[in-house]
Amino acid sequence: MITAIVFVKADTARIPEVAQQIADLPAVSEVYSVTGTIDLIALVRVRSIDDVATTVADHLNKVPGVLDTETHVAFRAYSTHDLEAAFSLGGS
Predict the structure, then answer these.
(1) Could you state, in order of their start, the residue ranges of all structural domains in the chain?
(2) Per-residue pLDDT, 78
(3) pTM here?
(4) Which pLDDT band holds residue 83 (cuts at 50, 70, 90)?
């Protein structure tokens, strides 16, 4: 599995709509509205680098209101989330 982190600059008047349209893309697992020089961060999780290219270049970049993107491909994860354990009601 390949994870790409995509920084998105968007039309500020359309950030909620842009974020929702990006979130609706099948390869996008999460979209965050953030402070700073970018407006949104999208996490893309796919099987191949070609799928990253297709998702970003052919779909995400074409969402109306997306002004610019910068894509970073993760090559190593140093932590993982176990949501089931985090929300477990059971004891030890």
Answers:
(1) 2-76
(2) 82
(3) 0.84
(4) very low
